[in-house]
Write a structure and sequence with these properties.
By secondary structure, the chain is an alpha/beta fold. The chain contains 14 helices and 17 strands. The chain is globular. Bound molecules: pyridoxal-5'-phosphate. The site of pyridoxal-5'-phosphate (PLP) has 14 residues, from helix 5.
Length: about 450
């Protein structure tokens, strides 16, 4: 029996046999290529959310898929009793690309944060200091397991599951005075996202982060950046801390690192690494050859192509065009974020989840956060043309919603899922970095 292309059966099985913790849209994707996803009917969607910032290289990237299939043929799993060449290489690559001296691998963002929280407490335990409190930000999101959930400054994620892990304090984001007040002699770490992704794409202020670094150094407090969503090129630099010019002691990664293959990583300085001795932490699957081969392919791809240039160039286009929309439609309150992690906030006249569904019906995939924010985090290979198509579609929907004359573009966009356009060179409009080959053009590109 195969249910692969039968949406009714797929959703029926889901409702009957899967734990109902998600609220999926009525669609199942069975194929992806570049920045597009294809559903069971062969309908095509422009993926403006990239598996929530995961599909960094897009769908079906040949380098990534061949690295995974080669590794799958050679060796999928090998336990941590032995050296693992791919783990050694990925650790080396990540440390070379960042502030870090050491890497630990796991399978998800929440596990990377568990490792970071444990490491911070272990560090002071081994220094024989009674420091265990961890300060995090209100509206933060660090994951669903107990440590990471307890670090998360949003009660809605933990309330039904109390008691949470003790020792966490939450302070208003971007409020340095509140943070200073929360510090005590028992403070072990300050843990922050540089851009709060899950609560509406809210970036930290540069001065705030610089001041925190100073305080951490002065008071012997470990600084943890949760770059699960912002890391691996998402913001236009390899890591978001590089945008701030502020280096943490510990950083967590996941999402984009495997390009879709589950992997998490906790990176730290040699000094912070003293928080774990052999046997203190581990993971059966973490650092396995398959996931690390994916991570290596992703890291290599950055080195071999102009992917970061592409992020920055498409980001400029998106911000420019979205800000034009904002000037035109008063229902848009703000456009914020960095690189290809962007939040579009609306006033009360727009319900973000409804707009997300309308975009979906028109062939565009985004996420909605709370009542008012649409988040986009497309594959980093997205082109300016594709980004422009998305903004046009959004503008058209807003124009019809706001009672203006229906825009003829909308009809063209409605057909996005139904027609295959002739291939065009996607990056021809972009000045490539001379030193690196341009990204391979996707096989298809709609031409409106
Ligand atoms: C900043 C941040 N940290 C941690 C997590 C948890 O990652 P995962 O879902 O891989 O456990 C997320 C997920 O959205 C995140 O955005």
């Amino acid at each position: 029996m195969s249910i692969e292309n039968d949406l009714a059966l797929i959703s029926d099985f889901d409702k009957n046999y899967c734990l109902q913790v998600f609220l999926p849209l009525p669609v199942a994707f069975v194929k992806g290529k570049g920045s597009y996803l294809y559903d069971t009917q062969g309908t095509k969607y422009l993926d403006m959310i990239g598996g929530i910032a995961v599909n960094s290289l897009g769908h079906g990237n040949p380098k990534l898929t061949s690295a995974i299939s080669k590794q799958a043929k050679d060796l999928i799993h090998c336990c941590n009793y032995y050296y693992i060449p791919q783990r050694s290489e990925l650790a080396y690559r990540l440390c070379r690309a960042s502030f870090a001296d050491k890497a630990f691998f796991c399978n998800s963002g929440t596990e990377a944060n568990e490792a970071a929280i444990k490491l911070a407490r272990g560090y002071f335990h081994y220094k024989e200091q009674d420091k265990f409190e961890i300060i995090t930000a209100e509206k933060s999101f660090h994951g669903r397991t107990y440590g990471a959930m307890s670090a998360t400054g949003q009660e809605k994620f933990s309330k039904p599951f109390e008691p949470i892990v003790p020792g966490f304090k939450y302070v208003p984001f971007n409020d340095i005075d509140a943070l200073k007040l929360a510090i005590t002699p028992k403070t072990a770490a300050i843990m922050l996202e540089l851009i709060q992704g899950e609560s509406g794409v809210n970036p930290a202020d540069v001065e705030y982060i610089k001041e925190i670094r100073k305080i951490c150094t002065e008071k012997d407090i470990l600084l943890i950046f949760d770059e699960v969503q912002t890391g691996i090129g998402r913001t236009g630099k390899m890591f978001c801390y590089q945008q701030y010019g502020v280096t943490p002691d510990i950083m967590t990664l996941a999402k984009g690192l495997g390009g879709g293959v589950p992997i998490g990583a906790m990176l730290c300085t040699d000094e912070a690494s003293k928080g774990f001795k052999p046997g203190d932490h581990g993971s059966t699957f973490g650092g396995n050859p398959l996931a690390c081969a994916a991570g290596i392919a992703v890291m290599e791809y950055f080195g071999e192509t102009n992917l970061l240039d592409n992020v920055n160039q498409v980001s400029v286009v998106l911000f420019e065009k979205l800000n034009k929309l904002k000037n035109k439609y008063s229902c848009i309150k703000s456009i914020r974020g960095m690189g290809l992690l962007i939040g579009i906030e609306f006033d009360d006249s727009i319900i973000a989840s409804g707009l997300r569904e309308e975009l979906f019906r028109n062939g565009f995939l985004v996420s909605s956060i709370g009542r008012s924010v649409i988040r986009i985090a497309p594959p980093l290979i997205i082109t300016k043309i594709q980004a422009t198509q998305f903004v046009k579609a959004l503008g058209s929907l807003l124009s019809t919603r706001m009672g203006a004359k229906p825009n003829p573009i909308l009809n063209a966009i409605k057909n996005i899922g139904r027609k295959e356009a002739p291939a065009v060179s996607s990056l021809s409009e972009q000045k490539p970095d001379d030193t690196k080959p341009a990204l391979p053009a996707p096989d298809d590109e709609d031409d409106f």
